[in-house]
Amino acid sequence: MPEITYKTELDNINWVEMKTTLCQDAFDNGRSPGQLKKSFENSYVACIAYAGSQIIGTARVLSDGVSMLVLLMFGHSAHIVVRVLQQQ
Fold this sequence. Notes:
By secondary structure, the protein is an alpha+beta fold. It has one domain (about 5-85): 3-Layer(aba) Sandwich (Aminopeptidase). The chain contains 3 helices and 4 strands, in the order E-H-H-E-E-E-H. It has helices spanning about 15-25, 35-40, 80-85; strands spanning about 5, 45-50, 55-65, 70-75.
């Protein structure tokens, strides 16, 4: 089994792969890879989980930076991704 790693930086993300993964998990809402990139970049914080080099989960936080936030996540290891976000 490949090692699971978590990345909070959004450089070098394969947005086409992420779109494909979302479609496979029936979590796709029709955004293009470019729109996915913009939505992750505009998030308060984001985390992507990998098994080896394959995307297996994501989580991102939308926030006003004061008192309100929304956590969005998908994938097999989303509960662990939340722990990574809590450390940010």
